[in-house]
Amino acid sequence: MKDTFKHKGLRQQLVNILKTKGITDTNVLNAIGKIPRHLFMDSSFLDHAYQDKAFPIAADQTISQPYTVAFQSELLQVKKGDKILEIGTGSGYQTAVLCELGAKVYSIERQQELFKKTSKFIPKLGYRAKKLIFGDGYKGLVDEAPFDSIIVTAGAPFVPKPLLSQLKIGGRLVIPVGDNVQIMTMFTRKGQKEFEQQEFGEFRFVPLLEDKN
């Protein structure tokens, strides 16, 4: 669990790359500059930890590209104390970014192998999610709703209705929608049944699978 000056330097370079790609939220950039991404990865990929690329992790999943993590985090406009639901804990990297931004994070992972690994690992780095849950992200987390925002870190062929219904008025759902290529989409809840939808271009994600536990 080493984090060296070299790693810190590489992170700063990564932050500079994200700035050139248009990420402007200083809190998000600071979080990415602080979190040791190399510790979230398989040792065989350590040299690649601070490249702006996605890489394989356990259970045929990936750790998202830093730009994607930064882009989704920026769309959420996280304020300290925000209650955020994350669908797809994965390696826990996005979870750590949200914690670093001061959010109260509830995160659901459907891959048991990843869930076990990540729920032991994140606290070792000092990041405490409010709850890490093994389950089906399509259903959201009714018991803890409503949320200030919801982030989906896997490609969804459609927008799960339960997630929209679990947003606070004014809350945001950021979700990549589509089959092979996803369109990053944000829904802002304007009223009980009223949502504003915005699209932010194409991204590629591993699929969000339903009822696979």
Describe the structure.
This is Protein-L-isoaspartate O-methyltransferase. GO terms for molecular function: protein-L-isoaspartate (D-aspartate) O-methyltransferase activity. InterPro entries: PCMT, SAM-dependent_MTases_sf. Catalyzes the methyl esterification of L-isoaspartyl residues in peptides and proteins that result from spontaneous decomposition of normal L-aspartyl and L-asparaginyl residues. It plays a role in the repair and/or degradation of damaged proteins. Its EC number is 2.1.1.77. This protein has helices at 5-20, 26-34, 66-76, 93-100, 112-124, 161-165, and strands spanning 55-56, 62-63, 83-87, 104-109, 131-134, 147-152, 167-177, 182-189, 195-203. The strands form two sheets. A seven-stranded mixed beta sheet has the order 5-4-3-6-7-8-9. A two-stranded antiparallel sheet has the order 1-2. It is built from six helices and nine strands. Helix 1 runs antiparallel to helix 2 (26-34). A hairpin with a 5-residue loop joins strand 1 and strand 2 (62-63). The chain is globular. The chain is of the alpha/beta class.
Which descriptors apply to this entry?
single chain, 213 residues, alpha/beta, 7-stranded mixed β-sheet, 25% strand, Protein-L-isoaspartate O-methyltransferase
Topology:
Elements (H helix, E strand, L loop, with lengths): L4 H16 L5 H9 L20 E2 L5 E2 L2 H11 L6 E5 L5 H8 L3 E6 L2 H13 L6 E4 L12 E6 L8 H5 L1 E11 L4 E8 L5 E9 L10
Parallel strand pairs: 3-4, 3-6, 4-5, 6-7
Antiparallel strand pairs: 1-2, 7-8, 8-9
GO molecular function, one term: protein-L-isoaspartate (D-aspartate) O-methyltransferase activity
Subcellular location: Cytoplasm
InterPro entries: PCMT, SAM-dependent_MTases_sf
